[in-house]
Amino acid sequence: MNKFLTSFNSKDLPSVKTDILIIGSGVAGLSAAIQAAKYGKVTIITKDKLSENNTQKAQGGIAVALSENDSSEKHIEDTLRVGCGLCNEKTVRIVVEEGPVRIKELIQWGTEFDKQGARLSFTQEAGHSIRRVIHAKGDATGAELERALIAKVRQSANIKILEYAFVIDLLHKDGACFGTVVNIKNGNVGAIRESPKKIVYARKVILATGGIGQVYRETTNSTVATGCGMALAYRAGAKLIDMEFVQFHPTTLYVAGLSRTLISEAVRGEGGVLRNKHGERFMFEYHKDGELAPRDVMSRSILKEMRETADTRVYLDLTHLSYKLIENRFPNIMEVCSSFGIDIKKDFIPVRPTAHYMIGGIKIDKNGKTNIQNLYACGETASSGVHGANRLASNSLLEGLVFGYRAGQSAGKDIDCGKRFDRTSDISNVLDSAGARKLDIGDLKASLKSLMTRYVGIERDERSLLAAQKEINFWSSYVMGKEFSDIRDWEFQNMLLVAGLVQKAALIRKESIGVHYRTDYPEQNGKEWQKRHIELSDI
Ligand SMILES: Cc1cc2nc3c(=O)[nH]c(=O)nc-3n(C[C@H](O)[C@H](O)[C@H](O)COP(=O)(O)OP(=O)(O)OC[C@H]3O[C@@H](n4cnc5c(N)ncnc54)[C@H](O)[C@@H]3O)c2cc1C
Fold first, then answer.
1. How many angstroms separate the alpha carbon of residue 184 from the centre of ligand 1?
2. pTM of the full predicted structure?
């Protein structure tokens, strides 16, 4: 496999340098930047505007053991149970026990969580044994978090921000990373204005590039969630782990033509119920917890119900809830629905499951370090082992906060350790541009998204996974190793690589566990698979 997506020679490209380079500006990247800036000069690179990411879309909230009748032990127990025995217990403990400190810090920095009187307000979500999820402005938790973190980042003279800058490749050699090759779309910082391709040299690089939802036809994710970080790391020789575990969210607003909008789990936590097209409530036929069953069970049950009723959706019914509750807790959901003529006080909301969260990713240790020298990762692009085979609702923002903090601290403290790049030598790559221009990447992208939804989606089996493998290999044979010059094309190359890794891991794991459901192996295969993780790398 070619180790780079673009042709370059480090000696020839214009360059800038920084101490710690952070790629991504969601909860993980911003948290890492705030910490790293205590130790050196930090540059944040982000491919769209600063606030375009999955973080700002988060609705439900952040799970944290802060209520009077809660405890770390209870939160740990719930996380381990939902993770189906595949969580790394030490990591779970770190996230759960450090979470309350990170939340108190956020409050000090001005994050306004919703309150009942003087106390934080906690809501219920699936899998939690107690009301544990704090939220902000009803259903705008992520946006409030992003606002507060951006404000904090902007206060630091040590942090430089580069928006609309796309990281094409990591600058790597012999198992060490020295920076990135970046494409600047609308260059907005001094030295990097005049040419589109630049090198940013860095002593430490932190990948905080988020998830892969865009690899699927239907997703709740932002358009930036194209798996870039995982592909960048993989090409550099990093280990990826648990790639078969893609979480689907059961209730996404389904209106043809509208980008898929999440209808938060908290809506069901507050009493919303699911009905099929005949108006029948069905979830209790599938699970004793009804609408608060784990997400994987919900998604498969909805799929089955859709098949049996020959419908493309099911319906979320909030009509029995008090208007005041809906208005206070879910103002954004109410507004989005009403813009499509759906009055959630009297109409059912059409919903279906879509790709939502990537559990697998770049393998990291408890300080966010990867197996590549100078390279760290945190947030959704990384896999710390906290989620096991199934993520407990609202644990990911918490993980982003805790591991963003840890990666930033660790990269900062280690700033003087590790290999340095000798600029008298060079790193270079040559690719063939012939043929690339003839390809309709838009068409390929749509085909890949459909393929993944159909064959590597909520349910998979050997036949579907092999069919996916055949197509992915065929497309790769003429897309990979070609020189492209556009961000959308590089993104597609990353999506294709990551799709192949999800498919590969899903084919290897011959059992059903958590979010990975094989119709040909519907049971959890305790003996053979217990505690086994699938690691993929190109070394
Ligand atoms: C609709 C929705 C609702 C959710 N609700 C909740 C919730 O209530 N509670 C919860 O805990 N979790 C929730 N999640 C999950 C959670 O929001 C994410 O897991 C989390 O925000 C990921 O944060 P991150 O910092 O890792 O990535 P992101 O916030 O996605 O940020 C990734 C960043 O990387 C940048 N980037 C990517 N590739 C490149 C590249 N090649 N070059 C430069 N920059 C790049 C992007 O531009 C972006 O800034 C939700 C997710 C969605 C989509």
1. 21
2. 0.95
